[in-house]
Amino acid sequence: MDSRRAAQDLLEAGKSGELSAALAAIAEATAPGGEPRYAPRVCRELARIIVCRNYAKSVLQLSHLVNAADACARRNESYERLLLGLPQATPRHFRDHLSVMLAGGGWRRPGFSLAPTGIAIAYDDGEFVVSFTRMPLLASLLEFIVGMDGYAAVDDIFAAMLADPSNRAVGDAANAISRRIYAYLSDNLPSVQNMAKFNRIHEYLAARAEDGEIEIGDAEIVEFWLDHAVGEGGEESGFRVYRTVLDTFMAFIRALELADDRQRASHAAPIGGDAEAGEIDPESLCGLLEQEGQWQSPLPLMDEDPAVRIKFLTGREKDGLRLLLEMGPLARSLPLSLLRAECFGTAQARLTQAMRRNASAAEVQAMAELDDLPDYRGQREGYGKLRQRVDKMMLASLHVLLRERALAEGGNVTALPGRGPVDQFQAIAEGGELPLLPPDDEIHAEAARAFRGVAR
Prior knowledge:
- The protein has 23 helices and five strands.
- It has helices spanning 3-13, 17-27, 40-51, 56-72, 80-83, 91-103, 135-149, 151-163, 167-188, 192-207, 218-229, 234-237, 242-266, 285-290, 299-302, 307-310, 315-327, 330-333, 335-356, 361-368, 376-408, 421-429, 442-452; strands at 112-115, 118-123, 126-131, 413-414, 436-437.
- It has a three-stranded antiparallel sheet, covered by helices on one side. Strands 4-5 form a two-stranded antiparallel sheet.
């Protein structure tokens, strides 16, 4: 993947649907004549300061601009007339509107002046200048905040500020709004810590990219860990533990995949029967709609009713499958990373915990021997045994499904043609229309044997 596109995709992937819709609504706002209200550059800058959580300076500038807009408003008007009332938010429109407003009556409060480049505001403890070129972004920011929090909440903050519009009151208003944006983004963006880790990974990969193309494989993950786990700042980097590195890389990869999916969706082809015109046949979409979305481990579902009462797997079996199922399809492309996490990662985590609780040197030394932990070959054999166990439990479950269906259909046993018992289980579990097979069918017999072999 191109390094620059990856950086943009990381910003895009982190946004929730609600946040994406809020930013898109501002980008799509139009003037009465159909022209865009905000220039694309302004919309990109708004998205950047919000997604990067770099909004504090802009919120302070907005608060000063609200103060100035209130000071030049005509009777029965307020700051919204300047910031939200212009057909197009451009520097020229702001300058012209302010000139017209001031020509009709001047400033309603002292301390303000109109300069060639913007508005200067004189406070008791200094001067603040808001440039015309900055005003379109600040107007879009106000529109975002109103959409995020509602007009009443925002207006209450600015009303308190305008009751005594000192420099300190403006700062207090900016801080209050920034806190509300922070709370909103906590629900609609990844944490600051996660984004910082993503940026660290991207910088590392980009520095090693050939022709601007970044690659992520087993080698890149372990090399990243080796570079960040030791030396000065290793603890502060958050990457000292190998399992943390793998978890972050998995989240990083899935963030890029999610952004790519959203990008394709935003440029979707029209639906229709004209293939030469680039239209997509609706019937061909059925298969796409049945495809899985982003991978989610099925283990949490097994800890909920009714599955938790059936006890398909023991706690030890679940622990043995946990990382494999968390990785899902990524395990196929990162097999060595999976084995490193299971073998070395487990050992490192145990040693780390022992050292944190001030375990004796003898206990730490015994753990370091790794006598009770498998090597890569042993881990693969362990996965093979777990696979056999899962297959056996699926067969046992198939027996119960077949038995219950037989009771409902007068003694006949139902099954679907397929490649094996697992296919049969999946088909019956999904509740399709099934043909009838006699009770002595081999699939039924194999499932019954598996059921009788389950001890619990």
